[in-house]
Amino acid sequence: MPGREEADGRERKARDARSERSATPGDYERDPAPCDVCGIHALVWRRCKLVCENCGAINKSCADL
């Protein structure tokens, strides 16, 4: 029967793996198009949303693709 220390280690590894997946380099790719709201070229893909770094508007999401 596994001890509590072993279970804690497995939980920690699973949590670390989840945090690595939630912030992959692909989540922060720049888009050359201008923002639909403010017109600035500061769009970044974050968690399946194309967000303007200037005004915070969501210009597009994965559901739109």
What does it look like?
The chain is an alpha+beta fold and 65 residues long. The chain has one domain (4-64). The chain is 29% helix and 22% strand. The protein is built from 1 helix and 4 strands; from the N terminus they run αββββ. The protein has one helix at residues 4-22; strands at residues 30-31, 43-46, 49-52, 58-61. It has a 4-stranded antiparallel beta sheet, with no helix packed on it. Strand 3 (49-52) and strand 4 (58-61) form a beta hairpin. The protein is elongated, with a radius of gyration of 18 Å. The relative contact order is 0.14.
Topology overview:
Layout: H1 4-22, E1 30-31, E2 43-46, E3 49-52, E4 58-61
Antiparallel strand pairs: 1-2, 2-3, 3-4
Short structural summary:
With 65 residues, this protein is α+β, with helices and mostly antiparallel strands. It has one helix spanning 4-22; strands spanning 30-31, 43-46, 49-52, 58-61. The model is unreliable at 17-25 (pLDDT under 50).
* Tally of discrete structural domains: 1
- Tell me, rounded to a whole number, the average pLDDT: 74
Categorize the overall geometry: elongated
Strand content: 15-25%
Helix content: 25-40%
Low-confidence stretches: 17-25
Biggest sheet, spatial arrangement of strands: 1-2-3-4
Category by helix and strand content: alpha+beta
Descriptive key words:
65 residues; alpha+beta; elongated
